[in-house]
Amino acid sequence: xxxxxxxxxxxxxxxxxxxxxxxxxxxxxxxxxxxxxxxxxxxxxxxxxxxxxxxxxxxxxxxxxxxxxxxxxxxxxxxxxxxxxxxxxxxxxxxxxxxxxxxxxxxxxxxxxxxxxxxxxxxxxxxxxxxxxxxxxxxxxxxxxxxxxxxxxxxxxxxxxxxxxxxxxxxxxxxxxxxxxxxxxxxxxxxxxxxxxxxxxxxxxxxxxxxxxxxxxxxxxxxxxxxxxxxxxxxxxxxxxxxxxxxxxxxxxxxxxxxxxxxxxxxxxxxxxxxxxxxxxxxxxxxxxxxxxxxxxxxxxxxxxxxxxxxxxxxxxxxxxxxxxxxxxxxxxx
Length: 334
Known about the structure:
By secondary structure, this protein is an alpha/beta fold. It folds into two domains: 2-124 and 304-332, Quinone Oxidoreductase, Chain A, domain 1; 127-278, Rossmann fold (3-Layer(aba) Sandwich), CATH 3.40.50. The chain has helices at 41-48, 119-123, 126-139, 156-167, 181-187, 217-225, 242-247, 252-271, 285-296, 313-321; strands at 2-6, 16-19, 29-39, 61-62, 67-74, 86-89, 102-106, 110-112, 147-150, 171-176, 191-194, 207-212, 227-235, 275-278, 304-309, 328-332. The strands form three sheets. Strands 3, 5, 6, 7, 8, 15 and 16 form a seven-stranded mixed sheet that branches. Strands 11-10-9-12-13-14 form a six-stranded parallel sheet, with helices on both faces. Helix 3 (126-139) crosses helix 4.
């Protein structure tokens, strides 16, 4: 089978197209022929080596975290799926590799594809859908009538999170450029800040939840200050916390390092009487099934910026790295 591999940790390194053997499956795995794969910022971060201390991958490895495709083989203990099922998934950490023609995935990380969308649309959902669900539902416990600030509303996570927050009955504020105002309004945003010309801290106050996705530490502090007492900020960009290191099974010394790295911002949040949480999204087929229902009911619709052919995977990744895509970018593998 054909696959795009990382041969060296480096931000400027391009993926290499290789021919390798089809993966074998374990007793709890399904083998999926990939039709389409989503591209995410995490792909670039892993390729550049930003996560290799906490989440090491042995070189060479196949990149990619989102997929939609068809089940072609099942393990002896698989009970939820059969050959021929159309599915989508975000494979668990250390088992990624969706920039390829086939992948073996644990059945607990897989869900049936929503019936009302195509393969390209389905492949755009798993990572951003699970990130939004775990941030707003699992951690944020967002309720009807509460206020949530979702940064970068026109991005991959933002376009999904706005729709989920509106489904939950929240008042949604977001940031984007003026060119994207109509897009985020159509998704349900109630208040929009033009990040190029306006300071959101002067516009927003007493928010219950912030979904933070900016690496700038000043933006992070401003985001904490717009929360009401008892509110919480869920960060997708760090700093990494010891709680996250424990979650992925890191050794004690890495937990110690992350406690040092996150001390200042956690202490700052404590002084403001708000909570800081770092989210490193985990694979979860059951949560994907909840998301499937929302998509099939029309509550949430995929937003795709561009679909690239498989051979242009490097070009697609470079496009995502620019940070200007409206919604998701996918590659058509088959």
